[in-house]
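Listing 4. Sequential folding, example run.
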Amino acid sequence: MKLALIIGVVITFIVSCLTSGYEAKPGVPKHNQ
């Protein structure tokens, strides 16, 4: 169960990084959010 929980957190972290990378360019602050 701990392994599944860790995998879930890692996947969520990777997906959030990818989506934030696609939504805004790196190094540019988000003013509209």
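-- end of first protein; second protein begins --
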Amino acid sequence: MLRTIVVGSCVSVQGTFENQLENGKIVVRVGDRLFAGKPVLRKSAA
């Protein structure tokens, strides 16, 4: 499943969901690299 995270104040990364950390951040994989950051909340369809 693709997920988008925010890394820093202006950088977002989209990759394959790997796992969720205890502090609420999630880890995504882009190629052979892993990135951790705050998840971007999805908007629900009205």
